[in-house]
Amino acid sequence: MSAVPADDERAKIPPLTLFRAFMSIGLSGFGGVLPFARRELVDRRNWMTDTEFAEMLGVAQVLPGPNIINISVWFGTKHAGALGAIAAFTGLCGVPLVMLIAIATLYGRYAGAPRVGAAVDGMASAAAGLIIGTGITLFRRAKPNYRSSAVLALVFVAAAFLRVPLLLIIAVAAPLGVFAAGKRA
Q: What pTM was computed for the model?
């Protein structure tokens, strides 16, 4: 794996290249593309580091809208301005949108078939596994201190077991995470 390019080199990603990269991401996942985005942007293209990806994801999670769309727009803007944002967003959503319309039409017709239900359940499990795997990978590579790990544990317990509303989790965990990261720096 080659080193991550300097910031000035990364700023020169043409919109068509952004479109193709995000189209590849959009076509890679079913039920969630975050793991594929990380692999494409960090491992394959070396456009950002794991830390940069984790930071961008952290901000994307507190913004309204789907995380991957927030990342595509932010990343595209950062590297090619407004045209880059449009290219990344369109690449991510364009072809999958056409496929979604076709699949939704078929699903509407065959939703009652037992095999269709089983297939949907299987895809949901696979998507959850990919998200968990990406989280574990980011956690390992970030090498968080004990304060950051404690915030992670609190968020996990609050969301998974206590069913605390997401907005309340964000309102409490965001300042705690900033405090934990500030102590680390």
A: 0.62
